[in-house]
């Protein structure tokens, strides 16, 4: 068995967790790190024991790299991913897959023509928490699923980020920054989205940097800092999602599914594991009876997880000839949903989602990231 060679492009903060996890998987080996700032690539390579470093072109030219992990900024995702496909490499991209439908669609078409694969974050979908909850729902734990509720509420990244302006600019905001986690989970549970309706707002037109060397400086808010989305799925289910950078109440990771025979709380879709509990309906209430419902825990198997799990699944899926879980097609459909929600908030109209995606596969039973398989 031989580990699959990986080249990583983008040596920013998130690269640390990718490098740590990819080094721990017997099936993957990071051979080279590339970045526009080649000194930063060198520092990360030395820190994590990666044998080579350089530019993005150096990664693409490496003869033993089979999969490129694209950790560049969102505006560069498509450009870097297309270059990797042109170089004959499979691609795993951080979220979102791209910032517009046309370029993301072209990327997938180019990969298909080259018989190469594209994967897209988030890979929290592969975590044991979400996988166990999804299996429980599909096995009928709560009867027929009817609707879901998700929520992400925070005061905003300007509370802690020293350079937060990009998170309030076009292509970001809570919808495109955090939305991929929640809507990827919903599409994995319910399938393709048919239409969306949304309303958005800005709490103010400018915000203040709170920390770091630029503290006290103002920056513009270009997109809604709070958005609420109602989603209708082709399968008949519905969902309501709140994403906000304006909430005094910090509440993250709310993902609930309500069915004909119960309700289940799933783990935070930005994490790989967490609380899975459900409640049964109360039944008939009589005078003096309590409304209290006992929570029942869903036990599940745990395994080593972290960013990079989606790339590992791609490596194994290619070797086994099966679909990988966090596919480019899923990333494209979620992008389409998010952009449709953005358009709905701008126009006040319900927007039909034009794309669709095949049912998202489950992680194979017995999946063990630390077992050598390829």
Q: Could you explain the architecture of this structure?
A:
The protein has 374 residues and is of the alpha/beta class. Helix 4 (77-86) runs parallel beside helix 5 and helix 5 (101-113) packs antiparallel against helix 9. The longest helix is centred in the last third of the chain and has 20 residues, at 328-347. It folds into two domains: 4-120, NAD(P)-binding Rossmann-like Domain (Rossmann fold); 126-297, Dihydrodipicolinate Reductase, domain 2 (2-Layer Sandwich). It has helices at residues 15-24, 38-48, 56-61, 77-86, 101-113, 128-138, 173-190, 309-320, 328-347; strands at residues 4-9, 28-34, 52-54, 67-70, 90-93, 118-120, 145-153, 193-201, 206-208, 218-220, 226-233, 238-244, 251-259, 262-265, 277-279, 296-297, 351-352. It is globular and about 75 Å long. A nine-stranded mixed beta sheet has the order 16-15-14-13-7-12-11-8-17. Strands 3-2-1-4-5-6 form a six-stranded parallel beta sheet, sandwiched between helices. Strands 9-10 form a two-stranded antiparallel sheet.
